[in-house]
Amino acid sequence: MKFKTISLPYERPLGGPADEDNSDQYTAAIPRNVISLHSSENDLIFDPFIGFGTTAIIAEELNRIPYGIEADRIRFEWAAGQVQHWNHIVHDDALNLKNYNFPKMDLCVTSPPFMPMDDDWNPLYSGDPNYAEYSQYLGKLESILIKTKEIMKPGAPLFIHTDDIETSVITPLINDMHNITSKHFDFVEMIKIEFSGEETPDDYQSTHLLHFRA
What we know:
Layout: E1 3-9, H1 29-38, E2 44-47, H2 54-61, E3 65-70, H3 73-80, E4 89-91, E5 107-110, H4 134-149, E6 157-162, E7 165-166, E8 170-171, H5 173-181, E9 186-196, E10 206-213
Parallel strand pairs: 1-9, 2-3, 2-5, 3-4, 5-6
Antiparallel strand pairs: 6-10, 7-8, 9-10
Helix pairs in contact: 4-5
């Protein structure tokens, strides 16, 4: 697996509603770096897991045009309320992308919800006990990535934020994410991001991106 390391100044994750836990560890430094290097002004930037809108907010700061979809209503409403292009943010499951007339995207940057192997709460099914297996989590992720490719321009970059998860076991999410994605996209490289700056959390010194092309 091709690999490189870069250093970025850490930025705190953009805040969500006061009573919501924005624990996704998706620092704005990630989309800021990717969007700056891999797109141009007025390019269309897509996130199939828009969350609290970090990718969309940074896209607008950099004079790009954001699009996205989010299954959770609270996150959707918050994200749509943070951007000028609020009508480009859809409240629905990303599996239903084909139901919307999204244009072809120039770049996709996303941080999917993580699921440890030893957990039975699948974030992609809102904890539905009928979908409590890690294999079902990976299966839906793969299906969403297939749908995402359908709205990307040929050769457009895809960047996925991911990390291995240490609980009672080690969940090899980096490798698993690579395996499901590389079946449908061309793998470019894995990027280790080492954070710098006084605000860098002691327990979050680095993270990873997987870079693909549609």
